[in-house]
Amino acid sequence: MADACRGHALDHDVEKDAAVSRQRLHAGREPADSWSAAHDGTRRHEPEPVRRPGSRSTAAVALAGRTAGSFRMRIKHFTWTWFTMAMATGGIANVIYNVPFRFGGLYAVGCVFFVLNVVIFVADVVLIGCRFACYPFAFRQSFLHPTESLFIPASIVACGTVLLNISQYGMGRAGPWLDATLVVLFYVDCALAVVASVAIYLILWSTTTFTVANMTPVWIFPAYPLLIAGPYAAVLSARLGAHASAHQALAIILTGFVLQGIGFMVSLMIYSAYIYRLMTHKLPQEALRPAMFVSVGPSGFTITALIGLGASLDRVLSSSSSSSSSPSSSSSSFMGVAPALAGTILKLLANAAALWLWGLALWFFLISVFAHSSCIRPGRLHFSLTWYSFVFPNTALAAATFAVARTLADVLPSAARALQRLGAVMAVALVVAWALVVAMTLRALYLRQILWPQEDEDRDEGGFKGREG
After folding, report:
1. 337 pairs with which residues across the strands?
2. Where are the alpha helices (DSSP H) in 208-295?
3. Relative to the CA of 257, which of 250, 282, 377, 389 has its CA 20 to 30 Å away?
4. What share of the chain is helix, strand, coil (3-state, %, to 5)?
5. CA dihedral 171, 172, 174, 180 (to 10 degrees)
6. Three-class HEC string of 314-364
7. Quick check: 448 and 65 in contact, CB under 8 A?
8. How far apart are CA 44 and CA 33, in angstroms?
9. Residues 291, 218: contact at Cβ < 8 Å?
């Protein structure tokens, strides 16, 4: 890391010349895809500066980009948005875990995505640490930037997906020590989710002015860490089984319910602003429409959380009731109701609410899909890391579809089978979409469309100008 931080003056000069050459390359081209335009409507294009005598040509800049100093120049633009890659990978592992059509090798495929998620997350942490080590001012600047700050919670969400995948693929295979560790990490993740959500929204509301005309569902993103707590609590409480006491399982379940409720209610209030924006200002610009899929996630994750937590609560309360030795024991009632009856009622309510929300998630999904019908033509969409919104929020809908199918298996088996097939089709489509977006990421990295001055979410915009150090 120390070697990467050398050559400060040379890299600063290279970065300036690279920005100039990039402006020339963008001449006459439509603004690149970015959620940052959600704040100022369009991408800013500064007047092209006059070339200094003796300054290097575009070819020289490209050659300089291949030198050892290029790592330091490019790492400066490694933003929090890169954590969306880990989020999407963990989401794919989550969907594969929930596929009801099991066959030999499916578990191994899920494990591959799980391990890849861990590798990507660790790489993200290391590389963004390199950025802040080389440019210490960039840490504070990332919290004040009107767009990059929205993606800071992506690191918490990515961490949550890693823990969720560990509980899915690891519990029951590594011994009780992993169970105890995941319980502790669950509460740590919940604390980080609350802090990140509250802090980012307070910073945004204190430093940035937003307009409804330029609103996209990306405003929901700081609430996303809270939306992972419910599914994580559902899997954790289900997989703990006999290793956990009723008190410990109830604490996990109720914590998941509370945080999921906060995340969904915050998202619901932002939904209203989003619908108002669509009614008064039409669809977002074509370059911003991938962000529309973010609206699918809150309902999708809440469905999985409600169904999973409802089932776990019913199981815990029923076992607590059967193990109660006397009517006067502390486990003889739950909120004044017999535990077995309370568990059944709460499970039914959770399933009913989940069915309702599944329709809402599907509605937002269809709106987002058909809104892209005009973007199919070449040149309409330009790649950015926010393309991972094609994957991660929709993994929530796929997993929710499998969960709804499980609830209907006893009463409507034909409908349940249809939903299982629909979820399987979505799972295959999501794996293909993930592979395409990863391929586009590598292509953009090679073409310097990302990790390059004025090309990432840390670009100058809306009156915010990053420090040139």
Report:
1. 334
2. 224-240, 246-281
3. 389
4. 75, 0, 25
5. 60
6. HHHHHHHHHHCCCCCCHHHCECCECHHHHHHHHHHHHHHHHHHHHHHHHHH
7. yes
8. 13
9. yes
CA separation for the pair 70, 14 (Å, rounded) = 8
Listed residue (299, 264, 304) closest to 168, CA to CA = 304
Q: Are 23 and 48 in contact (CB under 8 A)?
A: yes
The b-or-e profile of 88-97 (16+ CB within 10 A means b, else e) is bbbbbbbbbb
pLDDT digits (tens, 9 = 90+) for 245-292: 778 889 999 999 999 999 999 999 999 989 999 999 888 887 778 889
Write the single-letter amino acid at 441.
Answer: T
The whole-angstrom separation of Cα 401 and Cα 280 is: 32
Task: Report whether 82 contacts 457 (CB < 8 A).
Answer: no
Residue 210 Cα distances to 41, 204, 276, angstroms:
11, 9, 14
- CA atoms of 17 and 50, how far apart (whole Å): 11
- 423-437 pLDDT tens trace: 999 999 999 999 999
Give dist(CA 300, CA 24) in Å, integer.
43
DSSP labels, 383-417: --GGGGGGTHHHHHHHHHHHHHHHHHTTT-HHHHH
Nearest to 38 by CA among 292, 279, 224, 266: 292
Note the pTM of the prediction, 2 decimals.
0.82
C-alpha–C-alpha distance, residues 39 and 212, integer Å: 9
- 365-387 b/e with 16+ CB inside 10 Å = b? bebbeebbeeeeeeeebbbbbbb
Decide if 270 contacts 220 (C-beta within 8 A): yes
Quick one: tokens of 109? 């495929």
Q: Give counts: helices (H), strands (E), the chain.
A: 15, 0
Q: Give the separation between CA 140 and CA 259, rounded to whole angstroms.
A: 27
Nearest Cα to Cα of residue 253 among 225, 231, 234: 234
pLDDT of 465: 55
Residue 393 confidence class, pLDDT cut points 50, 70, 90: very high
DSSP state letter for 67: S
CA atoms within 13 A on the CB side of 224: 29
Can you tell me which residue has the tokens 């419910």?
230
Q: Which amino acid is at 430?
A: L
Which residue is listed with tokens 């919104």? 389
Amino acid at residue number 447: L
Q: What residues are paired with 464 via a beta bridge?
A: 461
CA angle 367, 110, 229 (to 5 degrees): 60
For residues 233 and 154, give the distance between their C-alpha atoms in angstroms, rounded to a whole number. Answer: 19
Amino acid, single-letter form, for residue 148: E
Backbone angles phi, psi at 337, to 5 degrees: -120, 150
User: What's the CA gap between 17 and 15, in Å, rounded?
Assistant: 5
| CA atoms of 6 and 313, how far apart (whole Å) | 56
Length of the chain: 469
Q: Which residue has the tokens 């020590």?
A: 177
